[in-house]
Inverse folding.
C-alpha cells in the first residue's frame, strides 16, 4: 500500500462536508441573486440570473453526495486534482530560479490589478466568484498528499484562515471606498453620513462586545480541542529543525533575512518598519479621508500601505509557509519535501562581479595584519562600486526625486519631512530590489565587508 | 493665565453655558453640586449633562408629552420611549433644540475645512467645534485687559505656611537630616537600597560557583580515525564541532569546523550526497572546506584550534577560533597537516 496516499476515506469524507458547506453557502447566494440580480435574455427568453447559481449549487450538492458515497473506495475515487496541473505547478513554482520570480511577480501583478480593476472587484458577484474559485482550488488541492501535509498542519491552519480573512477585509475596504468615491463624484453625501452608526455605549456597545467576547472564546476553545498543539522534541543546540521556521507572523522577516545581513534584516529594517509606521501621521499632509472610507482621496497613502502589507508582508508569509521546505529551498505546492533536493545557487558579491568578471583580474587584497586605517582604505578600494551605489541610492536619489517626480510633494512637505519620507520609501523598496537582484544575478551582497561584519 | 485655557476652564465654561437657560445667575462652582443632586427631571430648556439625567429626562418627557410640544417622534406618540432608537431620536431632536443657541452665540466657531461635509441642520455641534469656538473666544479675550471669559473659581484653601521653614539657616546637616528623616524620603531611600541589593544579588548569578560545561579542550582520537575526504559528525552534539579531513589549498588537512552558521547562528547539517553544509534556517551553504557559497552567509565557517597532543591524539581547543576572512587559517594552530 502507498505510504503517502493522495486520497484516504477520511479525506474523501471530510471533503464531502467541505462541498456540503459550499453547497449551503451557494444555496443562500441563489436566494440573494434571485432577489437582486434580475434577469437576462437567453435564447429569446427571460431567465433569472439566479438560475445559473442554482445550477452551480446543485452541482456542488451532487459532488458532495459523490464524496459521501465514494469514501469507501478512495483509490478509485475520480474527483481529484489532475496530475498534469500538479506537475506543471511544481515545475514552475517549485523551480529554485523561476519559482520565487513567478511568485513575487505574480503578487505584484495581482496587487496592481486589484487597484486598477477595483470598480469590477467590488461587485458582490465578482467577489463571490473569487471566493468560490479559491475554495474550489483549496478543496481540489486537498486531494494531494504533499499539499495536505503542509496546509493541514496545525501550525498552518490559522494561516489559511488568515488568507481568507485578509482577502475579505481588503475586499470590504475597496467596496466601501469605491462606493464613497462614487458618492463624492456624484455630489451625494458619504455613506458614513447617510448611515449614522452611532449607538449608546451602554447598553448597546457593551452588549455587542460581550457577545463578541463569548463567540471568540467559544471559537478558541473549539480550536484548542480540535487541533493539537504542534509540539516538537526537546530543544537541542546541536540540532536545528529542518526547515526551521519562525512563527508565521515573522516569516516576512525570515524571508528578508535570506537577502540581507542579520544586522540589517533583523535589527535595522524592523526598527525602520516600526518607526516608519509611527511617522506616517507626521509625514502625511493630506487632510482628506478622515473618518470615511475612500481610495481616490488618498490613493497614494493607501497604495503605499497596501504594497507594504500585501506583496511585502502577507505574500512573504505565504512564501515562507507553503513554499519554503527543508534547507530553506523552494518547493512547489504539490511537491514532496525532499531534503536532498539539489539547487545550484552560487551567490556572488558585487565586488567579485566587478573585479573578477568585469575587470578580469584578481580581487584587491585586504591585509588583515595592517592597521584599521590601512584596512579601511583597502576595503574602500575593493568595495567602492557597492558603496557608491548604496550612497547614491540613499543620499543622491532623494534630492533627485524632490527635483523631478516628487516636486509637488517636496513643496508641500518641506525639506526634513520629505527626506524622512523618501528614505522610508527607498528602504521599503530596498527589499524587492535586493530580492530581484538575488534571483536575477545571484547577487549576494552589494557591499561585502565580512572583516567588519558589515554587509549590505 | 495668558495662554490657552485649560481643559478644566473649558469644561467649567461649557457647564456654565449649558446652565444658561435655567439658572444663568448661578456660578458654575455652585451649579455643579446642584446637578449632582440628581433631580428626577431637570427643568425644561436645560441641556442634560449625565447619561442618567438624559434617560430620566426622556422618560419624564415621554410621560408628559401631551403638555409639551416637542418634535421628538417618541414624545409625539405619548409613550415612554423604550427602544434605543426612540431614545436616540428623542435625544437628537432635543439636543438640536437645546444646543443650537449655544452654537449660534459663537460665531467664531469655524467649520472644519477638510471635514467630509457640513453637518446636517439641527445636529449637535461636535465637541471639537465647541472647543475651537471656546479657544477662539479665549484668545480674543486675552487681548483685552479684562478677561470676561475666565470662569470665577472658588477660592482655594490657603496653603499651610511652609515658607516659614526657609527662614532657618540652610546647613548641610539640616539638608541631610531632611533627606533621610522625612517619611517620604525614608521610603524612597529604603526602596532604592533594597532594589540596589536585589540587583547586586542578580549580578551574582553571572558568576556561578560551578559551571557545567564541557571542557574547552578535549581529545578526539588519533588522526587515523578521520580518513581523507570525510566529515565526522561524531562530536557535533557534545562539542559542536565537525572534524573534517579534506584538501585545502593543495594540502591534506584535518581541521575542526564550528557548527555555528555565520549568518544567524543556526546549526547547519552536513549533506553527504551534495558534499556541503546546509543551514535549515535561511539556506546558507558551505563547501566541505567551510567556504560559504550559497544563501546569505557572509563569511566561511570558523575553525577551532587543533593539534596533535604528545600522546598522538588530536586535541581540539574550542576557546580559540580562526576566521578565514581575517587570514587566520594560515595559522598553524588552525589545522593539522597529514602527510
Amino acid at each position: 500500500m502507498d505510504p503517502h496516499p493522495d486520497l484516504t476515506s477520511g479525506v474523501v469524507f471530510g471533503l464531502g462536508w467541505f462541498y456540503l458547506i459550499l453547497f449551503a453557502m451557494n444555496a443562500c447566494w441563489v436566494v440573494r441573486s434571485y432577489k437582486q440580480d434580475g434577469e437576462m435574455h437567453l435564447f429569446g427568453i427571460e431567465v433569472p440570473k439566479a438560475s445559473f447559481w442554482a445550477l452551480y449549487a446543485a452541482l456542488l450538492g451532487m459532488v458532495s453526495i459523490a464524496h459521501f458515497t465514494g469514501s469507501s473506495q478512495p483509490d478509485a475515487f475520480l474527483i481529484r486534482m489532475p496530475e498534469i496541473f500538479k506537475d506543471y505547478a511544481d515545475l514552475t513554482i517549485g523551480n529554485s530560479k523561476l519559482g520565487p520570480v513567478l511568485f513575487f511577480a505574480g503578487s505584484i501583478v495581482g496587487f496592481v490589478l486589484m487597484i486598477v480593476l477595483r470598480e469590477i472587484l467590488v461587485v458582490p458577484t465578482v467577489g463571490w466568484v473569487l471566493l468560490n474559485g479559491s475554495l474550489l482550488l483549496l478543496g481540489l488541492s486537498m486531494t494531494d498528499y504533499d499539499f495536505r501535509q503542509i496546509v493541514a498542519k496545525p501550525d498552518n491552519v490559522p494561516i489559511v484562515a488568515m488568507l481568507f480573512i485578509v482577502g475579505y477585509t481588503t475586499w470590504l475596504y475597496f467596496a466601501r471606498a469605491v462606493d464613497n468615491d462614487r458618492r463624492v463624484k456624484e455630489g451625494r453625501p458619504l455613506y458614513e453620513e447617510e448611515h449614522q452608526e452611532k449607538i449608546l455605549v451602554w447598553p448597546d456597545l457593551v452588549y455587542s462586545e460581550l457577545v463578541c467576547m463569548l463567540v471568540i472564546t467559544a471559537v478558541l476553545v473549539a480550536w484548542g480541542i480540535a487541533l493539537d498543539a504542534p509540539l516538537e522534541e526537546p530543544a537541542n543546540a546541536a540540532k536545528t529543525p529542518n526547515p526551521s521556521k519562525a512563527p508565521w507572523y515573522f516569516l516576512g522577516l525570515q524571508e528578508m533575512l535570506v537577502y540581507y545581513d542579520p544586522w540589517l534584516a533583523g535589527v535595522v529594517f524592523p526598527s525602520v518598519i516600526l518607526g516608519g509606521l509611527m511617522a506616517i501621521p507626521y509625514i502625511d499632509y493630506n487632510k482628506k479621508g478622515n473618518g470615511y472610507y475612500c481610495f481616490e482621496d488618498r490613493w497614494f497613502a493607501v497604495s503605499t500601505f497596501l504594497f507594504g502589507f500585501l506583496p511585502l508582508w502577507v505574500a512573504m508569509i505565504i512564501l515562507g509557509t507553503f513554499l519554503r521546505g527543508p534547507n530553506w529551498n523552494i518547493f512547489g505546492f504539490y511537491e514532496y519535501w525532499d531534503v536532498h533536493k539539489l539547487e545550484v545557487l552560487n551567490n556572488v558579491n558585487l565586488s567579485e562581479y566587478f573585479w573578477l568578471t568585469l575587470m578580469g583580474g584578481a580581487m584587491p587584497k585586504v591585509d588583515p595584519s595592517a592597521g584599521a586605517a590601512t584596512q579601511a582604505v583597502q576595503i574602500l578600494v575593493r568595495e567602492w562600486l557597492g558603496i557608491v551605489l548604496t550612497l547614491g541610492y540613499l543620499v543622491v536619489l532623494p534630492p533627485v526625486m524632490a527635483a523631478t517626480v516628487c516636486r509637488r510633494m517636496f513643496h508641500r512637505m518641506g525639506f526634513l519631512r520629505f527626506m524622512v519620507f523618501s528614505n522610508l520609501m527607498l528602504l521599503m523598496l530596498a527589499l524587492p530590489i535586493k530580492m530581484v537582484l538575488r534571483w536575477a544575478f545571484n547577487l549576494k551582497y552589494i557591499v561585502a565587508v565580512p572583516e567588519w561584519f558589515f554587509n549590505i | 493665565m495668558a495662554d490657552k485655557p485649560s481643559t478644566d476652564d473649558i469644561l467649567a465654561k461649557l457647564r456654565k453655558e449649558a446652565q444658561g437657560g435655567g439658572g444663568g445667575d448661578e456660578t458654575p462652582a455652585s451649579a455643579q453640586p446642584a446637578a449632582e443632586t440628581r433631580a428626577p427631571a431637570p427643568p425644561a430648556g436645560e441641556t442634560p449633562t449625565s447619561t442618567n439625567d438624559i434617560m430620566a429626562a426622556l422618560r419624564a418627557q415621554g410621560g408628559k408629552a401631551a403638555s409639551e410640544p416637542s418634535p421628538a417622534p417618541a414624545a409625539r406618540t405619548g409613550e415612554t420611549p423604550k427602544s434605543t432608537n426612540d431614545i436616540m431620536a428623542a435625544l437628537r431632536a432635543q439636543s438640536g433644540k437645546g444646543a443650537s443657541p449655544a452654537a449660534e452665540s459663537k460665531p467664531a466657531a469655524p467649520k472644519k475645512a477638510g471635514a467630509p461635509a457640513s453637518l446636517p441642520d439641527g445636529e449637535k455641534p461636535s465637541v471639537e467645534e465647541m472647543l475651537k469656538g471656546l479657544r477662539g473666544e479665549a484668545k480674543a479675550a486675552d487681548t483685552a485687559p479684562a478677561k470676561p471669559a475666565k470662569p470665577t473659581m472658588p477660592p482655594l484653601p490657603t496653603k499651610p505656611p511652609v515658607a516659614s521653614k526657609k527662614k532657618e539657616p540652610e546647613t548641610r546637616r539640616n539638608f541631610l537630616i531632611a533627606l533621610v528623616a522625612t517619611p517620604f524620603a525614608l521610603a524612597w531611600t529604603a526602596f532604592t537600597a533594597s532594589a540596589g541589593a536585589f540587583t547586586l544579588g542578580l549580578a551574582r548569578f553571572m558568576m556561578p560557583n560551578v559551571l557545567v560545561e564541557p571542557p574547552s579542550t578535549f581529545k578526539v582520537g588519533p588522526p587515523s580515525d578521520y580518513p581523507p575526504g570525510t566529515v565526522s559528525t561524531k562530536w557535533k552534539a557534545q562539542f559542536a564541532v565537525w572534524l573534517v579531513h579534506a584538501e585545502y589549498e593543495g594540502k591534506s588537512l584535518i581541521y575542526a569546523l564550528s557548527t555555528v552558521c555565520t549568518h544567524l547562528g543556526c546549526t547547519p547539517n552536513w549533506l553527504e550526497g551534495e558534499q556541503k553544509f546546509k543551514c535549515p534556517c535561511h539556506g546558507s551553504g558551505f563547501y566541505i572546506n567551510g567556504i560559504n557559497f550559497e544563501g546569505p552567509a557572509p563569511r566561511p565557517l570558523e575553525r577551532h584550534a587543533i593539534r596533535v597532543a604528545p600522546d598522538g591524539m588530536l586535541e581540539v581547543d574550542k576557546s580559540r577560533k580562526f576566521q578565514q576572512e581575517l587570514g587566520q587559517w594560515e595559522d598553524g594552530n588552525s589545522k593539522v597537516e597529514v602527510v
